[in-house]
């Protein structure tokens, strides 16, 4: 146990002091938004004839306005809208603010009725009609600022992970990938039989799981994740939670489940035992008529909207070398069916013949081939690729039902031939013009990361996710990150 005695004396570094100011920042932001909304509601009621005639409600608002504002903030606090654990991730923060706002509106309406207080109906509607969306937008802006700060290494939680070395590395990889969560993994606890200096991914081992309480307390951690292999019984975890009751350390149990969306997970306690129910994958939902109708309407609208741009792109390609405008390549679609995928030609005419030579030069073996400075790309091709204009003809593939607006990228048949069994799940849905890989880095991603994102999309499909990806695609295209 020499390793344990040495490691336990080390701390994880000073805490991020700014974390304690997040609730205060949210409170100040809500106060500023509500004050502005109340001023706008009063001005709007004074100048607009909403119900009968325009009226001056300034005197009334000066009396009841501060009381309503204070009550609104108080109800949000009661609903947990300023708790430390609601900031940064999930929809819980928005739900709490929204529900608290509705309750405030209801209490105000009932209170004015019972007290026979003549509150302007126009002011009431404007205050809550503008205030609720404004509060939600304000929280969203605050969240984006928090995410940006965390990606820069600020607002970090000091995290320990307890479990077998393989489970520790698995959880740490997810937390490192999702840097916006602000979880900085500073150390690991492993079973005494597997004590070592560090895990395979380089996380320092600071102690043994059997002495978790003392090691966690000495390390000054903010959170501790218990992964597979950390505990020998449920009673052990219960005792650890009791021992950490006054240590201000949050305990998180990380099950051996990754890449499953929150919509597919339901936790139902039964007899004090929290059971995690995981809904089946949603790949079949992505093939139903609703998504197909969305693709048909969307592709038609986009073809009409981008017709002038496509005409200009076709002219640029034709004038460059007098070669063909379109490049039609055989790709693999849903359930392994082949189809001709359209693109504006961005390479020299004999690009396919020169592919084997580039494979040998770069050492490419499997997956989608991408090269940052591909010598086969023409001058107009660089411009077309930079803004993904070369892929606009694929709108006709979407219209014909061979592709979708959102989905995994359509692979080449030779790529599919080298797929492992798990990767074949990418073919359960129609391939897409854009997808999670494109809005997450495009060609800058490794093959393994691109596959992970595609499989996540297939198993966790939803229409809201499609709309989110389409919105993020605009930023990814204009930012040109990973496009070559």
TrEMBL record:
Membrane topology: Multi-pass membrane protein
Top-rank lineage group of the source organism: Bacteria
Keyword Transferase applies: yes
Keyword Transferase carried by entry: yes
Residue ranges of every copy of the Bacterial sugar transferase domain listed in the record: 291-478
Gene Ontology molecular function: any one: transferase activity
PANTHER family named among the record's database cross-references: COLANIC BIOSYNTHESIS UDP-GLUCOSE LIPID CARRIER TRANSFERASE, SLL5057 PROTEIN
Record protein name field: Sugar transferase
Organism field: Nocardioides hankookensis
């Amino acid at each position: 146990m020499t390793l344990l005695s040495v490691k336990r004396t080390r701390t994880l570094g000073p805490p991020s002091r700014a974390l304690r100011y997040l609730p205060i920042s949210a409170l100040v932001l809500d106060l500023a938004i509500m004050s502005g909304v109340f001023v706008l509601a009063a001005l709007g009621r004074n100048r607009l004839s909403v119900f009968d005639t325009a009226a001056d409600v300034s005197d009334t608002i000066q009396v009841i306005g501060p009381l309503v504002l204070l009550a609104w903030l108080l109800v949000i606090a009661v609903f947990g809208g300023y708790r430390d654990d609601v900031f940064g991730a999930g929809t819980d923060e928005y739900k709490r603010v929204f529900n608290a706002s509705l309750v405030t509106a209801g209490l105000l309406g009932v209170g004015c009725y019972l007290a026979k207080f003549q509150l302007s109906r126009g002011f009431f509607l404007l205050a809550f009609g503008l205030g609720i969306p404004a509060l939600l937008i304000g929280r969203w802006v605050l969240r984006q600022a928090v995410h940006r700060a965390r990606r820069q290494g600020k607002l970090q939680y000091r995290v320990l992970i307890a479990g077998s070395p393989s489970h520790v590395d698995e959880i740490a990889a997810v937390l490192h990938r999702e840097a916006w969560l602000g979880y900085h993994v500073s150390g690991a606890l492993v079973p005494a039989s597997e004590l070592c200096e560090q895990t395979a991914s380089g996380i320092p081992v600071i102690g043994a799981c059997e002495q978790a309480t003392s090691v966690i307390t000495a390390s000054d951690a903010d959170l501790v994740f218990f992964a597979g292999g950390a505990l020998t019984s449920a009673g052990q975890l219960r005792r650890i939670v009791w021992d950490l009751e006054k240590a201000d350390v949050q305990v998180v149990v990380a099950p051996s489940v990754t890449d499953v969306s929150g919509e597919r997970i339901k936790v139902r306690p039964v007899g004090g035992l929290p059971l995690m129910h995981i809904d089946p994958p949603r790949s079949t939902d992505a093939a139903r008529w609703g998504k197909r109708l969305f693709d048909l309407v969307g592709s038609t609208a986009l073809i009409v909207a981008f017709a002038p741009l496509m005409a200009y792109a076709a002219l640029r390609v034709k004038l460059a070398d007098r070669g063909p405008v379109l490049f039609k390549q055989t790709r693999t679609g849903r359930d392994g069916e082949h189809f001709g995928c359209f693109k504006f030609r961005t390479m020299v005419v004999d690009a396919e013949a020169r592919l084997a030579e580039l494979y040998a030069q770069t050492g490419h073996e499997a997956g989608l081939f991408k090269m940052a400075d591909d010598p086969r790309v023409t001058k107009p091709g660089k411009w077309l690729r930079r803004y993904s204009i070369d892929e606009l003809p694929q709108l006709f593939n979407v219209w014909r039902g061979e592709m979708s607006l959102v989905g995994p990228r359509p692979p080449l048949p030779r790529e599919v031939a080298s797929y492992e069994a798990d990767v074949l799940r990418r073919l359960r849905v129609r391939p897409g013009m854009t997808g999670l890989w494109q809005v997450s880095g495009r060609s800058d991603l490794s093959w393994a990361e691109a596959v992970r994102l595609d499989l996540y999309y297939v198993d966790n499909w939803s229409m809201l996710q499609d709309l989110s990806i389409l919105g993020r695609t605009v930023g990814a295209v204009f930012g040109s990150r990973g496009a070559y």
